[in-house]
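user: Please supply your own:

assistant:
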Amino acid sequence: MTGIIVSCVLGVVAVLAFLITCNKKRSVPGVFTKMVASIFFIATAFFGVNHVISATADMAVIKYGLMVIMGLVFGLLGDIYLDQKWVYPKDDEKYLYAGFAVFAIGHFFYVGAMIMQAELGFVHMLIAIALAFVIAIVNALLEKPSKLDYGKFRPIVFLYSAVVGLTMTTAGVALVATYLAEGSIAACVPYIAFTLAGGLFLISDIILSGQYFGPRNTPVNFVLNHVTYYIAQYLIALTIILL
């Protein structure tokens, strides 16, 4: 548990360093500090898996933890790609597409981890996917009222919204399914945390949309975007020990 606590504390310090470094100007040192901040949520998950191995050696949780780690690694890569958009503005479209793709892969690992751990079936996932597309449709409908212009990115924004929404809806379905199967709130705690993380991801991406596709690229939104994002990633890393 010591490793988990230390990595979380150092992660908070690294996030603060990144926010201070990059809030006014995106730079290569800023990309580095963001990468360090992201490394610590991977470290948190790694120490979580190590704790499970030493405490219970529960193979199901270990497999879940490894899939979560893969999702977090793709989150780190997504962080790197998206920040290159600001450092190399001439190639911003390439980095934006790459960021979308890499983050989406990470979310699929999260969804896969929950399917495996909560033993979700076809009907469960049909409900989760339907709800995720509802989220994507609502997001698309709010483009103009929110004074956003996705332009050529409209199709990928729609698909990415569905993928990010799927993380939250899968967690919500896993939460309900686990409670109905076990009748215990304690058994649902990891999925409560994952649902909250999914919601924070959505909030983070809504703020990010205002920065990328609208007039709201402000220091306050920069901070809110990253704070919600990092809380989400650390919550997901901590679900390993919550199981």
Remarks:
- Residues 56 and 231 are 27 Å apart (CA to CA).
- The mean pLDDT is 89.
- The first helix runs from residue 2 to 22.
- The chain has eight helices and no strands.
